Amino acid sequence: MSTQDDDNQGLILALVFGLILLVIGLVIGIALHRAGQRAVPAVAAAPAPMAVVEVVEGAAIRVEGGVVKFFFASGSAAVAEGAQGALAEVVKGVAAGKMAVISGFHDTTGDPALNEELAKQRAQAVRAVLQSLGIGEDKLNLKKPEVTTASGSNAEARRVEVTLE
Fold it and tell me: Do β-strands 159-164 and 140-147 pair in parallel, antiparallel, or remain unpaired?
């Protein structure tokens, strides 16, 4: 009877160790997968010299001549999807020693103080995206929000621009 008990204990022990190894492998696999997803934007293909996203009353991104323009929905500081890919050239420029300059703009409708604060929040949201791509605070320059007085629409005025200096 003792050999049968020993066989059962050996089987149970083998199952426990097998489950432990399976869990460890799963955790490592998930960690590697997530690390790979984070690394993709940094090595993403460079955007075309002029990638245009139609600006509707919502969030959008436009890349023109090396300037990345983030447009925002009215009353919102939510950055449009695709920000990491649009900033690929900026990340490369900063890696080459340049400074990323973030400028917030707002329209003239509504309370000027609230507009300026919202423009600041939008610029900070774009700064957070750049920081998530590995750019240090010392390589980022936030400019004071400006009022857009050009002939463009209010949707075009609600923007943040990122340039390299």
Answer: unpaired
Only one residue has tokens 């309370």, namely 111
How far is it, in rounded angstroms, from Cα 52 to Cα 65? 11
Tell me whether residue 19 is exposed, middle or buried, using C-beta atoms within 10 angstroms of its C-beta: 0 to 12, 13 to 18, 19 or more: exposed
Widest distance between CA atoms in the chain: 93
Closest CA to 69 of 126, 116, 135: 126
Tokens of 154: 């209010």
For residue range 14-53, list pLDDT tens digits in order: 778 777 877 887 778 777 767 665 544 444 444 444 444 4
How far is 70 from 60, CA to CA, in rounded Å? 6
Kindly report the number of other CB atoms within 10 A of residue 44's CB atom.
15
Task: Indicate the pTM of the whole model.
Answer: 0.63
- Rounded CA-CA distance 147/106 in Å is 5
What is the tally of helices (H) and strands (E) in the chain?
5, 6
115 Cβ contact partners less than 8 Å away, ≥ 6 residues apart:
106, 107, 108, 109, 145, 147
